[in-house]
Structure formats: C-alpha cells, structure tokens
Design a protein that fits this description.
Helix content is about 20%, strand content about 35%. The protein has about 700 residues and is an alpha+beta fold. Helix 3 packs across helix 13.
Length: about 700
C-alpha cells in the first residue's frame, strides 16, 4: 500500500517562525512557535472568544485543511457514527442504588446527549427526575455535569457543571421538593462538594487562577459566597487537593497528594469550623488512602516498603501513623487497588498476574473468599454502596467480547445477582469475535501484556490492519473492557489491540515505576515491541498498524513517531502531551508542579532537564519519513494546552520528509475530554476511525460476516 496515494495534494498551513530562546543549566532551547501560546491563556479558558485573532486564524486554517484532506471520508464518518450510535441504548438507565427510603440512579432519554438523575422509592416505583442534563445544557455549545451528591436527609441536591470545557465548575444547590435551585452558587470549584452533617452547608475545593485546588471552603446555605469559611489552604502548588465524606456522614476527608506522596486531614462533619486533624504528614513516597470502618479507619498504604500495598487499621479517635496496625499483609506481585468497608465485611479490588479480582473478607473472623471469573482477559469495577450497614455490594464485569454486566453480591451468602447486562440494540454476538492476551517480549526481556479482539473471520496472515492503543503513565491501567465503538473497526477486519505498557500498573506497582522518570523510555520501547510482535506473529503488517493514544498516551504517540516511524502506517494523537520539556519548565501552567514527581523537575535538576529533552516529542522532531499523523485537541483544555499539539504539528511539517500529511483537528468549544454530549463524542470517534480506515486503505471495506 502506498502511503502517498490516500490523501489529496493540498497546501498545509505554514506557521510563522518567531524564535524565542531560554537557557537552563547552560543549555539553550529555541522555540520557533512559542507565539502560539496566548499570553492571556487563563482568560481564554474562561471565555474562548478572548483568544488572540492571529492564533484563532491559524487554528481555523488547520481545521479547514484537515477538513479538506478528510473530505472523502464524510460519508464513511456518517456510516461509522450510525453504527456506533446503533449500539447504544438511547433510553438507557443505570440500576438505582439504595439509600435510606430511596434508590438513586441516572438515565438517558431518547435522543438525549446528557444524563438525567432520578430517584425512586427504595423498593421500586415511579421515577422522579431530580436533574435533567439536557435541560441544563440547552443553548450551550459545551456542557458537562460534574459531581452529584444528595443530602443525607434527601431534601437537596448538590450538583456541578462546566460550560466552557476548561474544568472550572460551578456548584449549585437544588431543592428537591420544588425542583428549583437555591440562590447559593459557587464558581471556580473543582467539580464536586460534600454535605455537612446537618445538611445546612457543604465543603468544596476552589481552584485558583492557575487551575489548582488550593483552598477548601465551607459554604453555609443562604450566606454570601465571600463569607465562605476557609477550612484549609494548601500552600504547595505541587499538590492536588479534593474533599470527600464517609458513608455514615461522620467525617470529612481532605485528601492531598501528588503522584507519589499523599496526606489526609480529618474533620468531623458536624463541626465545619474546627481545625482539620492531620492523620500522617506527607513523607516523600508514602502513599495512603482512608476508608470508613465504623470504629476504625481502613488504611491502604505502601508504608514500610509495601510496594504493592497492604491494608492497615487505625482507631477513628486517633488514626495517627503510630497507631496503624496491619490487617492484610503486603504480597509482592499482588497490587491492592482499592478497598470498601462495610459493617461486617471488607472488600478489596486487586490485580495479580495482570488480571483484576475481588476479595471479600469477613471482619469478625478474617476469613476471605474471592469472586471467580472464567475469561482469559476481563475488566472489573467496584461500585460499592451508599449504605454502610448492608450485606450487599455492587460490582461490574466486562471483557472485550462480553458487554458490561452489573451484579449485586451478597457478601454473606455469596449469591451473585445479575441486575443488568449492557444492551446493544443493533445486536451483538460474542461468538463472532476472538479475544486473546499475548505476552510480548520487550527490549530488556520483560513481557508486555497485549489484549486483542478480532473477528473470527479475520485472516491472521499479516494482511489485517490493526489499531494499537497505548497509554502508559500515572499508574493508570487500561482495562480489557467491552467497547462497542471499536467493533466498527473489528467488523471491517481490524485487529484491535491494547498494549499494556510500562507506566501503568497492569503488572503491579513496579510496572508503573519502570515506566516513569529515568525509566520513561521503557513505555515507548514496550509499545514499539508490541507493534513488532504483532507483525512477527502474523496479526498485521507495519504499514497497516495505526497507533492511537491520548493525553500522556499522546506523548507516547509523539515519542514512537520519532523513534520508529517506519513501524506504523498512521498515528492518532489525541490531546497529546508532546511539548513535555517546555511545559515542565513553566511552573505557572495548571498541572506543572504536581507533575514533577512523574516526569522530573527540569528547572531544578540538569539531569531531569537532559532526560526529558532526550524524549520530549516536540524537541526531537527530525528529518524523518513520518507516517500520516492526526492530532486532535480542545481549545479550553487545562490539562494539555492547545498550543502543545499546534506547535508539534507545525514543527513536524517543517522538518519531516516525504508527502505524508500531518493533520490537526481542534475543537474550538471543548477541552480535554472532547465533545461533552454522548452522541457528539461519537462523531469525534467516527472521524478518527475514518482516518484509520483511510490510511490503511480500508475505506471501502464492508463489515465481515
């Protein structure tokens, strides 16, 4: 297949070069495209119309160019969208979760883009709509709901929304009897809040001008916002902060953390003006989480060298570290991911041998049992419960071929009740598909898991195209879960693959440590090794592989493009973190100080500077024959700012050899998560899939079987 033949010849936007240099550690870095960063970027996040007209003109020219280059896929995009939409139950509803006299859930109406939140009587009955996202979103080009929290007396609803895509959320309070919002309104919040014990006010985190949650405040209903009580202020810009509550409504938990260190402060929910009590002071590398256990806190921690975490207990009246006592010992290779406490049981989600599992422990006896599953690769999630004094907990299960299932599980009788199976209205036959779990040899001999799904009629002789997805950062594990969207590729003969590269926790905490800081390049070489193994074992060929990743996974895309452009037939980089060095050198950007533990601090450390400079995609663009590349971004993204991909695209065009195009699609009305509606998001996916089909010569392919 000739890569040159699939795109029309058209002039791409050429960005002006205006060199700006800065020197660190005696090393000078010159950036020809730094002007794309708007000086008033904070203002643009709040009001996109304030973007500099010259920058806007350039971004609009990029959109016009990619639109022209992808014009011949317009009908294909419509077909893909229709297929994906057809797999979604439009009037879908969650299984309501019980809490006192009611059960709470969410649903969508036919044609609805946004969720609705409802409640019914505890044991079933008429639904009462508490909040309709479509009504709230009416007339807004972007709208996304944040946290939703009903008060313990079931009289009010605390809810949040973002209507810019910049993740500055507004908090509102709804009276559930009248259905009307109170006058209380809080701007610039982190997107959620927690009710006080008597439900006459709530706690929330406020974001500063640089989008950092720096203050925890208490708002009493009916008071003016400027009178909100400052509960705690975090002085270190390198730490995130959020607030949560326990299910018995006794405690407010103030969680403070970066990517390797955590700290908790406690406050009784009936005493909002008190001084929060420190649990264990921050100690670099010490991580812990608190979970309510009635008279104790359960503490999930890596203390004392427990790399894959252990579970401790501490009395609620004095949970200082000196009082921690071991409950579940550390077991190397078994990563404990989360715990949920109940009156008589403790449930933990853990990962061993690359697969998740749920373990239930009886608190009185210490006896444990595991909930078993049969498939080769699958995904699990704990949904927990609103209630603490209950024998029933909820979990979800899916695999790459099995639609999501919701179960209630009786922890005493071990009875598993299937409540719901994800409906695929257009039909889904799991027997038409094959799912596999491969172990790919990496450069250093490590075995990298790769999850696959493909149609049973797909030939495995090297002729099949492949979409290879990767992430590999922050310890985030990409689950082998059911994905109705990818079936549009799989049904056209694609092998859909997920490379579980280092930087995630797929094989334990050490898998994460082996893909960060000085060992970051393992993430990139693992992904390239996965691509080569898929070719070597006959699943695909290099010019038929389309690599895809977003955010930190977009950085992975930029890195593998520089390191092995010949190994891929196309690359899709969504909201790509590609200007790593410049971003980590700018302490004013929203996420830079909290990110230093993950990537290194090039301001203070020459070694970190040289390390990041060695792989930062933007800084390593060279005169190479890159495959076709599609970059996707959002103008108001506070996580990966729009100018990172804009600059990267400009430099790629300037330096690359050959005729393969570099396309840049930027949503001028959204942020990091893309379009906010469930169907408008499908349009974006249809676009990227059309690109994958185009570069692999499969635009005319018809579904198999």
């Amino acid at each position: 297949m000739s890569r040159k033949s699939v795109f029309p010849q058209a002039a791409a936007p050429q960005a002006q070069k205006r060199p700006v240099s800065q020197t660190h550690h005696g090393i000078t870095q010159t950036d020809d495209y730094a002007w794309m960063r708007a000086d008033n970027w904070q203002d643009v996040f709040r009001d996109p119309s304030r973007l500099d007209p010259e920058i806007r003109a350039h971004l609009e020219a990029e959109n016009a160019y990619q639109s022209a280059m992808m014009a011949d896929t317009a009908d294909l995009q419509k077909v893909l969208f229709s297929e994906m939409k057809g797999r979604i139950k439009e009037d879908d509803s969650s299984v309501p979760m019980k809490d006192g006299p009611y059960a709470y859930g969410s649903s969508f109406k036919l044609g609805g883009e946004q969720p609705r939140y409802f409640r019914t009587p505890r044991d079933g009955g008429t639904e009462h709509i508490l909040l309709d996202g479509d009504v709230e979103a009416a007339g807004k080009p972007y709208f996304r709901l944040g946290g939703i929290d009903h008060s313990s007396d079931h009289a009010r609803l605390l809810w949040a929304y973002d209507d810019k895509g910049s993740e500055f959320f507004t908090l509102r309070v709804r009276d559930l009897a009248s259905g009307q919002d109170l006058a209380d309104s809080v701007a610039d919040s982190g997107g959620s809040g927690v009710w006080a014990k008597d439900n006459d006010g709530f706690f929330y985190a406020r974001l500063d001008a640089n989008h950092r949650p720096s203050k925890l405040l208490f708002h009493r209903l009916g008071s003016a916002g400027q009178d909100d009580h400052l509960v705690y202020e975090e002085a270190d810009p390198g730490f995130f902060m959020n607030v949560g509550g326990t299910r018995d409504n006794r405690w407010i938990l103030i969680a403070i953390n970066d990517h390797e260190t955590s700290e908790y402060r406690l406050l009784r929910s009936d005493d909002p003006l008190a001084e929060p009590k420190l649990v264990a002071g921050r100690e670099t590398g010490l991580q812990y989480d608190l979970e309510d256990g009635g008279d104790v806190f359960f503490i999930l921690t890596n203390a004392d060298g427990a790399e894959d975490f252990k579970i401790m207990t501490a009395p609620v009246d004095d949970p200082a570290r000196a009082n921690w006592r071991e409950l579940v010992a550390h077991e190397p290779g078994r990563l404990i991911l989360s715990v949920i406490g109940f009156k008589d049981h403790l449930v933990r989600l853990e990962r061993k041998d690359g697969l998740p599992r749920i373990v239930v422990r009886e608190r009185a006896s210490g006896a444990e049992h595991m909930i078993a599953f049969d498939e080769e690769a699958y995904s699990l999630g704990l949904s927990g419960s609103y209630e603490y004094d209950t024998e029933v907990m909820r979990f979800t299960y899916s695999s790459m071929t099995t639609p999501a299932q919701v179960f209630d599980y009786d922890m005493r009788t071990r009875e598993r009740t299937l409540l719901k199976t994800q409906e695929v209205p257009s039909g889904h036959d799991p027997d038409r598909y094959v799912t596999r779990r491969l172990m790919t040899p990496a450069e250093d001999g490590e075995l990298v898991p790769v999850s696959l799904i493909y149609h049973k009629d797909t030939p495995l002789d090297g002729s099949a195209p492949c979409l290879l997805y990767g992430y590999g950062a922050y310890g985030i594990t990409i689950p082998a879960a059911f994905n109705t969207n990818c079936l549009s590729l799989v049904d056209r003969g694609f092998v859909y693959a997920i490379a579980h590269v280092r930087g995630g926790k797929d094989k334990g905490y050490g898998w994460y440590e082996d893909g960060k800081r000085s060992r970051k390049t393992n993430t990139f070489t693992d992904f390239i090794a996965a691509a080569r193994h898929l070719v070597g074992t006959g699943y695909t060929a290099h010019d038929r592989i389309v690599a895809q990743g977003g955010s930190a996974g977009g950085m992975l895309m930029g890195a593998i493009a520089n390191m092995a452009p010949e190994a891929f037939g196309g690359i899709v980089a969504e909201v790509p973190f590609v200007d790593v060095l410049a971003t980590m050198l700018d302490a004013t950007l929203p996420l830079t100080p909290p990110e230093w533990p993950e990537w290194g601090n090039p301001i203070q450390s020459e070694a970190d500077y040289r390390l990041i400079a060695g792989y930062s995609p933007y800084d390593n663009v060279a005169a190479l024959a890159y495959p076709p590349i599609l970059a996707v971004a959002g103008l108001t993204d506070p996580r990966v700012t729009y100018w990172e991909p804009a600059k990267w695209v400009a430099r790629l065009r300037e330096r690359k050899t050959g005729d393969n195009p570099v396309l840049f699609k930027i949503n001028m009305e959204s942020g990091h998560a893309g379009a906010s509606g469930r169907f408008s998001r499908l349009e974006e996916i249809a676009f990227t899939y059309a690109f994958a089909l185009k570069v692999t010569g499969r635009m005319e392919a018809r579904p198999l079987g």
